[in-house]
Design a protein that fits this description.
By secondary structure, this protein is an all-beta fold. 1% of the residues lie in helices and 54% in strands. It is globular. Bound molecules: beta-D-fructofuranose (FRU). Keywords: Carbohydrate metabolism, Cytoplasm, Glycosidase, Hydrolase.
Length: 474
């Protein structure tokens, strides 16, 4: 009997304006690209269950980065070159064709999940909907001799008429690294060598997943998701990290010299980023809005996982800012509140929050004001964000797992806070993306938001109801 896709049994945590699959599991965003008038985003997807399994590529497209239509599954595993999964990868447009590069995953069949091998493959499409796997796959059959079997997540770009592909990998010495290949035609790939690698296991990890490399504001940025970095004080507290290096590429041998690794998002639920260059030159990014091995209560309902909102990256003083794309203003429906008010000690800013955007303008607040923004229901506390002006520190506490996450700011204070609330997610952008917290939450009762201040202060705040049906599912 043919296997059937899992169905969503309960809509309680389904998001209103974030990309999910129509059913089943998703993880990493893949293949973010602009092609023939549409942005396309793909994602790691297992449509047969609410858990990770043989990876397919789910697919959605949008003309405006706001309203997305899901499309048929683009890649299904099971062919000789991708027997046990079409793992993460990227997309590139050449002439009138959209090319996908992805990792073929293969188990040796002894029931040991770490006993696998990986190769790199290509698929192409002219209409951006139906994809054909390249008949001469794999385009890269095996890892270099000094590499372990961790060899995946191709990111391809074009530079001065040459195509480059970087891969996340692990050197035989057990350290994470990025290796690079080049090609004239996207079909034949030649190994160039290692681009950069972890300086130590504890500091930079054993395997670098989902690398992405681009020029931004005059520097070269390597964005990646290392596994195995040890927690250090208030940093690297997630199981796996997503962050970046800023540096310089040596174009003669494609090695990359860079500064220290920095986390990109300070929340619990952000991993495996994928960027693209918008037609107007902006560098846009999606992340997976979850974390490996965290609780995912929506699994009880027949699905799991979502992508973050699309965000724009920019670089200032070596720090990567990440703010929601301006197109998201098109989500706004009705303005529920738009006021300037003096707060003595505490004030409810909004209630009945489901699909809402909340903007707080702290311009008038004095530099030494401590504040807490809390998101609670009438039955439970959910999440609190506190600003400590003495240390320029932000502390986010989640009450479900009782774990704090921390961020700092370089600016002299927090002057703005933009929050996107959806049925089961909260994304908080401080100072236009200087510090960001991405979080999932699970509560069937709607949230209310309160602001507490340690001295009387004046703020402006706006609340918009947002479109709750921005994504259409097939
Ligand atoms: C990152 C990752 C990738 C891999 C994919 C498999 O979350 O582990 O390295 O390609 O997920 O689904």
């Amino acid at each position: 009997m043919e296997k059937e896709f899992i169905e969503v049994k309960n809509e309680r945590y389904r998001l209103g304006y974030h990309i999910m699959a129509s059913n089943g599991w998703i993880n990493d965003p893949n293949g973010f690209v602009y092609f023939n008038g549409y942005y396309h985003i793909f994602y790691q997807h297992h449509p047969y269950s609410e858990k990770w399994g043989p990876m397919h590529w789910g697919h959605a497209r949008s003309k405006d980065l706001v309203h997305w239509e899901t499309l048929p599954i683009a890649l299904t595993p099971g062919d000789v070159e991708d027997q046990d999964g079409c793992f993460s990868g990227s997309a590139i447009v050449k002439e009138d064709t959209l090319y996908l590069f992805y990792t073929g995953h293969h188990y040796y069949g002894d029931n040991d999940p770490d006993h696998f091998w990986q190769n790199q493959n290509m698929a192409y499409s002219k209409d951006g909907i139906h994809f054909t796997k390249y008949e001469h796959n794999p385009v890269i059959a095996k890892e270099p001799a000094d590499n372990t079997h961790h060899f995946r997540d191709p990111k391809v770009w074009e530079q001065n008429g040459v195509y480059y592909m970087i891969l996340g990998s692990q050197e035989n010495d057990g350290l994470g690294r990025v290796i690079i290949y080049r090609s004239k035609d996207l079909l034949d790939w030649e190994y160039v060598g290692p681009m950069t690698k972890a300086k130590s296991l504890a500091e930079e990890g054993f395997m670098w997943e989902c690398p992405d490399f681009f020029e931004l504001d005059g520097s070269s940025v390597l964005l990646l998701s290392p596994q195995g970095i040890e927690a250090r004080g208030k940093d690297y507290l997630n199981l796996f990290q997503t962050g970046y290096f800023v540096g310089t590429l040596n174009e003669s041998d494609m090695t990359y010299a860079h500064k220290e690794f920095k986390e990109l998002d300070r929340g619990h639920d952000f991993y495996a980023t994928q960027t693209t260059l918008a037609p107007d030159g902006r560098r846009l990014v999606f992340g997976w809005m979850d974390m490996w091995e965290s609780e995912m209560p929506e699994q009880a309902d027949g699905w799991a996982g979502a992508l973050t909102l699309p965000r724009e990256l920019s670089l200032k003083d070596g720090h990567l800012y990440m703010k929601p794309v301006r197109e998201l203003q098109a989500l706004r429906q009705e303005t529920q509140c738009d006021t300037v008010q003096k707060i003595e000690a505490e004030c409810e800013l909004a209630h009945e929050l489901k699909q809402h955007e909340l903007i707080i303008d702290f311009e008038k607040i004095s530099l030494d004001t401590a504040w807490t923004l809390s998101f609670d229901t009438n039955v439970a506390q959910v999440m609190h964000l506190t600003y400590d002006p003495k240390n320029h520190e932000l502390i986010l506490r989640r009450t479900d797992n009782n774990e704090a996450r921390y961020g700092t700011i370089q600016e002299e204070k927090v002057f703005s806070c933009q929050v996107f609330i959806d049925t089961s997610s909260i994304e908080i952008f401080l100072n236009d993306g200087e510090t960001v917290f991405t979080e999932r939450y699970y509560s069937e009762a709607p949230l209310a938001c309160r602001l507490t201040v340690d001295q009387p202060t004046t703020i402006a705040h706006t609340v918009y109801a947002l479109d709750s049906k921005a994504i259409t599912y097939i």
